[in-house]
Amino acid sequence: MSAETSGGPAATEEQRRELSRVVIPAVQRLIASGVPFAEITMSRLLAEAGVTRYRFYSRFRDKLDLLNVWFLELNETSAQDHEAWLSIDERPDPAALRDAIAALFVPYEPFSTLHAALYDAATVDPRIAAEIGSIESVRTAALCAHIRRGQRDGWIRPAIHPQETAEWIVATGSRTYQRMLVATGELSTAEFVDLYAEFVWGVLYADGAPSDGDRP
Amino acid sequence: MYSDRIQMPVGNASPSRRQARPERHYAPDVVSHAPLLSPAGHVLALIARDPDARAGDIAATLGLSEANVRRVIADHLDAGHLERRRTGSRASLVLVDSELARSLTRVLATDAPRGGGEANDEPSRRDEARAQLGAAVEEFLEHGASFAELSVEQLIRSVGMSRSTFYGLFRDKDDLLNALIEDLMRELSNAARRWTDLDATLTKQDLHLAMTHIATVQRPHRRLMAAAAASPESSAVRANYNAIMDETRGRIRDHITRGQREGFVHAHLDADRLAGMLNWGAELRLSQIPPDTDDAKLNRISESLTDLLWNLLYSGRPPAEAKAP
User: Fold this and answer.
1) Are residues A68 and A119 in contact, defined by beta-carbon separation less than 8 angstroms?
2) Are A68 and A5 in contact (CB under 8 A)?
3) Do A216 and B205 touch (CB under 8 A)?
4) Which tens digits make up the pLDDT trace of B206-261?
C-alpha cells in the first residue's frame, strides 16, 4: 500500500489490520441494523466499536481507508483460495472446477454489503478503484500462467490467447459479481458460482471440440 | 404505500428520449404530460432527475404544499425507496429502488416535452454540438480530468461555443453526459446486433467480424464509459445506461434461445443469466481498451472474445458432462 493511503505515520499495516478487525464488525452490525455505509457517522461507529477517536485516526485516514484495509486483507485470503483453482494440473471435471471456484467466492459471502459499499466508494475515490484494479491484474497474471501450463501439458484449449483470455475471464467474473450479485442481488453466491464455473469450463477446459481447427 | 399508486406505462416507454429531454424546472403544464403519475410519483420523479432538489422547489414546481412534499419524502425514506446521502457538505436524496428510478426516468423522458424550443427545430445543429462537445469531454478525460471537475465553462471555451447555445441544448453538464453516453450505448448496442442477428448459418469468421466491429466502436471511448460506470447508482445517467444494457442483454438472450431452439447453441446453457454475464463482462473488458490501442492488439482482443464465445456457445463439446452441477 502506498504511503499516501496509510493512516498515521506510525501505523504499520499490521496495526491497521488489528484495529480493522475490531471496527469492521461494528460497521457490519450498523449496516445490518439498517444504516447504509455512507450514513454511518464517525461518532456512531466509534461508540459501536468501543474505540477512541484518537486511536481510530492514528490508524486510518477515514471510513473509506478502513474499508480499504479490510478489502486488501480479504483479498490476501482469497489469493490463497485461488490456489484451489489455479494449482489444478490436469483437466478438472466440471464438479471439481465448481468446487474450486466456490472456494474463491464463498469467503466473500458474509461481506456483500461491505462489498457494495466498496464498489460505491470506488466510483468517487480513484485510489480504491486503483486498488481493485491492481488486485484484478494480479489475478489475471496468475490465471494467464495457469492457461500457459495447461496448454503446454495439453489440458487447456491450445488455440486461445493466454493473456487476452485471462483478461476476459477475470473481467467477466469481477463485473458479473459486482452487477448481478452485489448491486442487484439477481444471483445468490451459489448461483453465481454455477454460472461462472460453467463459463470457465466452456472457455478453457471443455474438450472434444472439433472447432479449434477452424479459427478465422 | 405510495409506490402502489404509481402507475407505470408498461411496454410503451419507447426510447424517443433523444428528442425528449425534460428541463430541470417544470412549468405546471408540463406536469400534465406525465398524467399517469400520482402526486407522490411526481415528487419521486423530480428527485430521480435531480437528487439535490429541495422540498420547497419541488412543491413550487408541482403546485403542492411543502408539508405535503416533506410527508411524501418521509414516507418513502421509511419505506426504504429513498435514502439521504451526503457528498461533502451537500445532502441529497437518492432513489435506491433502481427499478422505480428507471421507470420514472422513462415516464418523464417519454412524456415531458423538451425545453429550448430552438433545439427542437434544428436537430442537426444539436447533433453537431453534441459531437463537438463529446470529443472535447473525451479529450479532457483522457488527460486526467474527472468529469466532476470539468466545468461547462472549460468545455464551451475549448470548442468555441457560447453559454447560451450550450444551455439552449443541455440542461447542465450531467444532461450532456447523459446524452453522450446514450449515443455511445446506442451505437454499441447496434454494433452488438451484428452478432445477435446471426442465425444458424453463422461461422467463426462472421463472429470475428462482429466482435471486431464492436471493439472498434468502443475503442475511442474508454473514458466516457468510465464516467458512466462511475455515475451514482440511482442517477438518471445510470438509469438510462442500465436500461440500454438490459436491452442488449435481452438481444443476447434471444439469440441464445433461438440458437438453442434451432440447434446451433448448446441446449444446456442458462440463456438469460449467461446473457447477463457476457454483457457485463464485455462492458468492463471493452471499456478497459485504451484509445491508442493499435489494430493488431485490438484484433487480439476481438479474436480472443470470438474464441471465447465460439467455445462457450457454439462449438461441439459434449453437452451432457459439460453441465456443472
Assistant:
1) no
2) yes
3) yes
4) 999 999 999 999 998 888 888 887 777 677 888 888 888 999 999 999 999 999 99
Q: Where are the alpha helices (DSSP H) in chain A?
A: 13-32, 42-49, 53-57, 63-86, 94-105, 112-124, 126-153, 162-176, 189-200
Give the Cα separation of B8 and B13 in Å (integer).
Answer: 9
Q: Give the ipTM of the model, two decimals please.
A: 0.82
For residue B255, count other CB atoms closer than 10 A to its CB: 22
Q: Are B47 and B66 in contact (CB under 8 A)?
A: no
Angle, to 10 degrees, between the axis of helix B123-142 and the axis of helix B152-159?
A: 110
Read off the pLDDT of residues A46-77 as tens digits, 9 standing for 90 and up: 999 999 999 999 999 999 899 889 888 888 87
Query: Considering only CB atoms, which chain B residues are within 8 Å of A124?
Result: 87, 230
- Cell, residue A86: 489455479
Residue pair B289/B215 in contact by the 8 Å Cβ criterion: yes
Q: Which of A164, A172, A209 sits opposite B315 (nearest CB)?
A: A209
The answer to whether residue B3 scores a pLDDT higher than 70 is: no
Q: Cβ atoms within 10 A of the Cβ of B65, count?
A: 10
Q: Closest CB to B311: pick one of A120, A157, A194.
A: A157
Total Cβ atoms within 10 A of residue B267: 11
- Contact at CB, A215 and B270, closer than 8 angstroms: no
- The C-alpha angle with vertex B214 and arms to B233 and B236, in degrees rounded to 5, equals 20
> How many residues would you count in chain B?
325
pLDDT at A202: 93
pTM for the predicted model, two decimal places:
0.69
Q: Search chain B and give the residue with CA nearest A193.
A: B324
d(C-alpha B306, C-alpha B313), whole Å = 10
Answer whether B291's CB lies under 8 Å from B220's CB: yes
Distance (Å, rounded) from C-alpha A159 to C-alpha B90?
54
Of the candidates A173, A195, A201, the beta carbon closest to that of B273 is on: A195
Distance, in Å, from the CA atom of A172 to the CA atom of A192, rounded to the nearest integer, reads 12
Cα B6 to Cα B23: distance, rounded to the nearest angstrom:
22
Q: Which stretches of chain A drop beneath a pLDDT of 70?
A: 1-10, 79, 81, 208-216
Helix axes B295-309, A162-176, angle to 10 degrees: 70
pLDDT on residue A3: 41
Report residue B268 as a C-alpha cell: 444446456
Handedness of CA A203, A205, A207, A212 (dihedral sign): positive
Cβ–Cβ < 8 Å for A5, A61: yes
pLDDT at site A66: 93
Which of B213, B315, B323 to mutate to probe the A interface, most A CBs <10 Å? B315
